[in-house]
Every structure is written in C-alpha cells, then in structure tokens.
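Human: Can I borrow your eye for a moment on a structure tokenisation matter? Separate attempts, laid side by side, tell us more than any discussion would. Could you pick a protein and write out its sequence and tokenised fold? No explanation is needed for now; the record alone will do.

Assistant:
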Amino acid sequence: MEVPETVEIDAGDSPDGSVIWLHGLGADGHDFEPIVPELGLAGALNLRFVFPHAPVRPVTLNGGMAMRAWFDIVTLDRHGPHDEKGLRASAAQLEALVEREISRGIARERIVLAGFSQGGAVAIYLALTCKKPLAGLMALSTYLPLPAALQEEIRNETEGESRDLAIFMAHGTHDAVLPMSLGQESRDVITALGYSVDWHEYPMAHAVCAEEIADIRRWLIDVYAD
C-alpha cells in the first residue's frame, strides 16, 4: 500500500512514540502543524507528529468541487448514502502509515491516531476496527462514520477482545459545520460498544481552541506515561 505524502515534526530527540493526525475536508497536512509547538511537549515527551495529505477528489456535497478529501461526502444525513469505499481506502492508507512508523522503530502500542472533522472519521474507523493494539484515538470535532455497519463490524471482528483504547473526543458547542449532537451521538455509540471516552466540550465553532490544546497535552502525557 502506497502511503500518502506527509508533513512531519519531531517534538523531542529520538522519538519513541508517534501521533498520526489527519486534517479535515479541504485542508492539508500543514493545517495542524502549528499546534505542535503550542502543545509544549519538549522535555515531557519525545513524539513524532505525522500529518498526511489527503488526495484531491470531487466532493458531491460541495457541488463536485475537487479538493483534498479522505472520502466523498454525499450528505451529512446519518441515514443517507456514504462513500464506504473511499472511507475504507483512506483507512488502509492510514494503516500503511502505522506500519511505516513501526518499521521506523516505533512500537504499535506507542502510536496514537488523531483526526479533525473528516479526518477524525477515518481515524475513528481504523482505531475501532483494527485488531492490533494502539496507544489511543484523538477525535476532534468529528463523528462516527457508517454507524450501523461499523457497529456490526466491530462486534464481529473484536468480539471477546479488550476495549482498552484511550479515546479523547472533543467538540465545539457552536459548531455549525458538524453539530455537536453528531459528536455526542458518536460518543454514545462508542461508549455502548464498551469503550471509555474522555469527552470534552468547548465554546467554539468548527475549530480548535487553546483550552482544547491544553487538554490534548495532558491527555497525551497520560497516554504515553502508561
């Protein structure tokens, strides 16, 4: 599997953990690059941040305009049609990035999958369906894709296995792009599947705020301290 192009930042010498962080619709791998120094992890953690670029493709919801997207979006209706093929293809690319980090000396149990908005949907999908352990999942202003099909897939593939995955979920109370109700519904479904979710709400729109960055820092330190 060919891996997508990436932007990479090492926060510390000789990284012993990696955070693979997917951007949202229409952005690129540089979108969250400025957050790394804001996390202030120097001296606390030695992490490699990997920010992949999504491919450019037409997006139905945006009138067929071509932009960077992890999969096509036909509708935001939870019960409407979804680009399952595109989602699975991007999840496979994300898994290839995980394997590349392993080949570079990072243990799988030291890799966090992260994503914002559409990128978060891909991160959630892979984190909940992969059979091998990961360090954690960071899902920001996002939602659970293919809810009914994904729930069935998780039950079939991971029945009887541990649900020991650190999960950080956050959403803005004023999000007009992806209403917070989508995030809350996704949180409830994930919790019902047996996972423990560290849920956060912030008075913001479809964005990331300073308080959230501080909470992410604390969460990452906790995850990698285990």
About this structure: Strands lie at 6-11, 17-22, 47-52, 56-59, 65-68, 111-116, 136-140, 166-172, 197-202. The helical segments are 35-39, 84-103, 118-129, 147-158, 180-192, 210-225.
